[in-house]
Amino acid sequence: MAHSKPKSDAPFLFPKCEASVLPDPSRFFSNHLLSNPLPTNSFFKNFTLGKGDQPEYFHPYLIKPAKSSLSISYPSLFHNSDFFHEVCKPNITISGSPVVDQSSRQTHQISSFSDLGVNLDFPSSNLRFLLVRGSPFITFSVSCNTITISTSHEFVSFCGNSLSTKYVAKLNNNQTWLIYASSPIKLTKHDNSSIRCRGEFSGLIRMAVLPNSKPDFEPVLDRFSRSYPVSGDADFTKPFTLEYKWEKRGHGDLLMLAHPLHLKLLSKDNESVTVLNNIKYKSIDGDLTGVIGDSWVLKPDTVPVTWHSLKGVKQDSPREEIISALIKDVISLNSSSPVSSWSYHYGKVIARAARLALIAEEVSYLHVIPEISKYLKDMIEPWLDGSFGPNSFVYDPKWGGIITVQGSRNAREDHGYGIYNNHHVHLGYFLYAIAVLVKIDPLWGERYRAHAYTLLADYMTLKCDGFDSTFPRLRCFDFFKLHSWAGGLTVFADGRNQVCPSEAVNAYYAAALLGLAYGDVHLVAAASTIMSLEIHASKMWWQVKEDKVMYPKDFTAKNRLVGVLWSTKRDSSLWFGDKEWKECRLGQQLLPLIPVSEVLFSDVKFVKQLVKWTLPALKRDGVKYGWKGFVYALESVYDKYEALQKIRGLHEFDDGNSLSNLLWWVHSRD
């Protein structure tokens, strides 16, 4: 865990709060899990909210629970130039006969979960689904019950082997499904849409679709049908290394599926892994490729974490221009001025001020740093000691996390922070400012070390030790997709979502800086690794290059960036703006402008494509100067002097940006 102090101290730094807006986790989580902090942004979150009946994506299948059944969809893709999404139509539905037990829970329940999987129980029908992401099989156990396998299509043929341990079902939508049983089971076609079991069965059943109904895949699935995963862990064993370890049972080697980023990062030294390039399943995230092995090692790029620009402000640049802007920006700092009480906007304001201190260091104009330091203390301390009247941090013991007073009372307040929306983003800005202040004033840092690490642990807890846990493991980070999600405790039919991958990068960059400030090498290593994965994921799935073949051609032709990225959807629009607001899309995937931003947008060819695509949007009436600043910042990557002239003409800036910061960025470009 990313704590230097005992975990049990954490909640007492901030008062406990019973938030009225939070759902009751006991509806869907098994009782033995309720004493520990629970995941709030996980890949199975829809199973734990509302009626628990909205689908989640497990690669390659969409899984949709109902009261006493579970539906599986190998989804098709609907697409146009504005958005595309996976279509969830239940190809297969599995149900069991009701168990005569009045005490049985009538809804499904989460009986256990891991980094890469979840066990979904249906006590009313004695079914347990071992759902592990990236498995080409859906695996479930049956205990002394009969089962029904139905479809929303029709079964055109159904046959089994002589041992009654394997069946082949062909549907009229051209799909072929394979059914494997751990012991003989008598399955018969009841009618055109259902298959039933004759007599009770106890054992394990696995089902898999034949992608594109290719018959040559069937022997491969036969071969691996007897080895199945029950859970999966993701360990940051070394800097810039992530290792998957699946717990498997049965016999033989384990077959899993890798998405394109997995394949890119799979270590060449991982001799225990074999890639089957001929085994492909379709996915909204790109083709999923077969991989043999129950342990993978992923090696993301090493990304340097530095306080200042990677190459420094150029010696031939007019530092006086930066210093002049810096003086004006520092003079404007006033802790008594009105500022938003919402944690997101407040965080951006203090992070903006912290940037000024680091820019002052980089241009060797240190006179302003004491004034910046005083401003940061005046702004940050009220949030840490609870004296900021309009809002404050509090601890929620129900799910296990730091929320805010405003957010705890109204789910719409504080951008949904009270229901765990965007925790990494909000806290990332606070921790960036805190890290800089610790660097400037180490004595202050020691005084507030426990507070800083508590805020950090809300989204950066690496290990959970059961009885002594305060926060869930890496709250927002998705170990399979390798990026963070924002949505929190809200049901969405399209699954999880995230708009601003750059703010996720900033969250882990800020965590790494905090590690630098406190000399915490383990924190620096872990946070840097996650930051690198976020950068890889942003380039893979948010950035849409002209020659990108992963996405449909009509969408790629009209878009250089995804607006909102969902588990099962890619949208060109934003929460607050339509598809024509291209400058907002660009800004939301660049802000905040920090040293690591140049790694996020290191592909100059793509940057040119992106700016060319965005510039016409600036001609619309009402485009704000703040968004223009981000567009010009990227333009400076390849046309420094043209962009500089445009930046000099700006009169306003994003609340997390400044003229000093834009000039620093431009003058540190090649």
Distance between the termini: 39 Å
Number of strands: 30
What is the general shape?
globular
Query: Structural class of the secondary structure composition?
Result: alpha+beta
Spatial ordering of strands, largest sheet: 7-8-9-10-17-14-13-12
Beta-strand content: 15-25%
The averaged pLDDT comes out at 94
CATH class of the largest domain: Mainly Alpha
Radius of gyration: 26 Å
Return the CATH architecture of the largest domain: Alpha/alpha barrel
Structural key phrases:
Glycosyltransferase; Beta-galactosidase, Chain A, domain 5; 19 helices; 670 residues; alpha+beta; disordered N terminus
Kindly describe this structure.
The protein is of the alpha+beta class and about 675 residues long. The protein folds into 2 domains: about 30-300, Golgi alpha-mannosidase II, domain 4 (Beta-galactosidase, Chain A, domain 5), CATH 2.70.98.30; about 315-540 and about 575-670, Glycosyltransferase. About 30% of the residues lie in helices and about 25% in strands. The chain is built from 19 helices and 30 strands. The chain has an 8-stranded antiparallel sheet with strand order 7-8-9-10-17-14-13-12, with no helix packed on it. A hairpin with a 6-residue loop joins strand 21 and strand 22 (about 290).
